[in-house]
Amino acid sequence: MGQPIESVTIVGGGTAGWLAAALLQSIAAGRPGRTKPLQITVIESPNIPTIGVGEATVPGMVRTLRTIGLSEREFMKRCNASFKLGVVFDNWNEDPDGNPISYINPFNRAPSLHGVDLCHFYQRFGANGLSFVQCYAPTHGLLDACKGPRVTSEKEFESFMAFAYHLDAARFAELLTEKCVAAGVRHIRQNVKGVEQDENGYITALALEESGRHPVELVIDCTGFRGLIINQVLGEPFIDYSRYLANDRAMAVQIAHPDPERIEPCTRSTALGAGWCWRVPLFNRVGTGYVYSSAHRSDDAARDEFLAHLGPQAGDAEPRVIPMRIGRNRNAWVKNCVALGLAGGFIEPLESTAIHMIDMGVRWLVTYFPDSDYADPLRDRYNRLIDNLYDEVRDFICLHYRLGNRTDTQYWIDAREELDLPDRLAENIELWRHNMPAHYDLEFSSLFSVSTYNAVLLGKQVYRTGFARAELGGGLALNEAEWRQILAEFQKRNAAMTERAMNHHRLLAELRGDVEPAARPASAQATRKRPPGVAPYAGPQPTVAMPGFAPPRLDLPQVAPAAKAAKHDKTEDASLL
Ligand SMILES: Cc1cc2nc3c(=O)[nH]c(=O)nc-3n(C[C@H](O)[C@H](O)[C@H](O)COP(=O)(O)OP(=O)(O)OC[C@H]3O[C@@H](n4cnc5c(N)ncnc54)[C@H](O)[C@@H]3O)c2cc1C
């Protein structure tokens, strides 16, 4: 048996480096019974900039903030954060009449009725013109009204529905730096110029530009797309995903809010001619960018298209071009080095998963934390989990392109017809032509639940546009009367939630402490914890217990008491989306 690891050295001071430091500081003890705390050091270049993008998150971010001990108010204020209730996809698909579709991928999971997912009822009986998500979640109403997921600003992290955040990436890294340094993390601002290895290739020391030799034990490579240690020194091969995903470049700008009092609580993804444009509204500005394929658009043509899309809002913005390395390392953990963040891999930011993957990478590292002998089974299991997570995200993103039906540019035709499909997804897509996605179709589902898959398929209206036979899930006996009853009750509940929720801008201003909380009308006071029949959302729940995570109560939104007659099942939000 090896000796306990006494120190962890993180190279890189972007979101990955500082988030890793904050999480390790909070949840890593090294070997049980150690008397000395783990010494964590972050080495950050004084002149190599961070990527400067990465501002949308998934609901796991609530857990991340709680684990590292950041108050939501401080986070909101310092990072100009806002709430996110899901991702809206504009113009990715056309309906049967050729009109562009807009649909939401919400964070709330669809409930079930007698153990049957509501999607089967929706598909068989319809919902009077409502979209599938409108049937069970108030997301559409809140987005239209620019309202947040709270009735008052009082309870941090609590809500009547699932949510994530938008944040200013540069300010987030600054805040983490401050917190980490105050908690004892050592911060060295120097360039790593070289690496010393032992006869087995393990890293023994880093050569720092000014202070020279810096001995190390466990090293975390957070040096961004360059993968300074994992790729350049250890030579770990990078598995390129370009055969599955065409987008390899992005350009980003920041613009002003068209109306600062109307902050949409969602990320918007609008399909353009050779990719898609993100729109992330923060409290004080909007972050926007175009993710595109260089095989289909030159940078100049992409810039013209992007600025034309923004219109007068763009002002005199000069978009910054960001080349993207899409894929993952063959192994995330090699010898005594673990790669996190962009150094570990990156899949285009369509579902805003990268920060979450950093969080998971640290939690799994703590779960399989090594001694100085670096036992292979620990490393192997860690690597398998990370591979699965990357592949899960890759598959889910590939789904969006494969099920697109645009024919107006070569990009969309190629994205659907020319790119490879990962085997597992290819098999599932064939299956889903006959039956809607079911839980067991997803072999590894730590992030995207089957409910999310159904929201995409139904949002894109694939079952109305020739993807599959009209009748699906034919083996299920479904009661239409019960469906109509539950539908009516959900509509009532959704309307009540939307009515009582606070204006998003006002909610943020109160949370930031910019304004005094307003006196609420008596009706809101009486139910200020939640609208009638609605339990608070207690944060995402991972499928397995994770380090630094105390499982919250299983109290997701449920219908009002009257609706219980229809016996709709309370679902647990087992995965994060
Ligand atoms: C277009 C785009 C959009 C994105 N959108 C999202 C999103 O919405 N949500 C999300 O979760 N993620 C998103 N991401 C991903 C997100 O930006 C990254 O995961 C996150 O910022 C972490 O980056 P990083 O810390 O790994 O790398 P970087 O920010 O590149 O940091 C690298 C660090 O390494 C240091 N460094 C490099 N070389 C040396 C050296 N020799 N010596 C010392 N230090 C060194 C640098 O100084 C820097 O501090 C997006 C990424 C892109 C490209």
Report on this structure.
There is one protein chain. Among the domains are: 7-80 and 167-242 and 326-374, FAD/NAD(P)-binding domain, CATH 3.50.50.60; 249-323, 2-Layer Sandwich (Alpha-Beta Plaits), CATH 3.30.70. 32% of the residues lie in helices and 19% in strands. It has 17 helices and 24 strands. Strands 5-4-16-17-18-15-19 form a 7-stranded mixed sheet. β11 and β12 (212-215) form a beta hairpin. The structure holds flavin-adenine dinucleotide (FAD).
Spatial sequence of strands, sheet with the most strands? 5-4-16-17-18-15-19
Mean pLDDT: 89
Q: Spell out the CATH superfamily of the domain at 7-80 and 167-242 and 326-374.
A: FAD/NAD(P)-binding domain
**Share in helix:** 25-40%
User: Largest sheet at a glance?
Assistant: 7 strands, mixed
* Unique bound compounds: flavin-adenine dinucleotide
Number of helices: 17
Strand residue percentage: 15-25%
Pick out the low-confidence regions: 525-544, 550-577
- Please state the structural category: alpha+beta
CATH architecture type of the domain at 7-80 and 167-242 and 326-374: 3-Layer(bba) Sandwich
Cα separation of the termini: 40 Å
Cα-atom radius of gyration: 24 Å
Rough outline: globular
Can you count the beta strands? 24
CATH topology group of the domain at 7-80 and 167-242 and 326-374: FAD/NAD(P)-binding domain
CATH class of the domain at 7-80 and 167-242 and 326-374: Alpha Beta
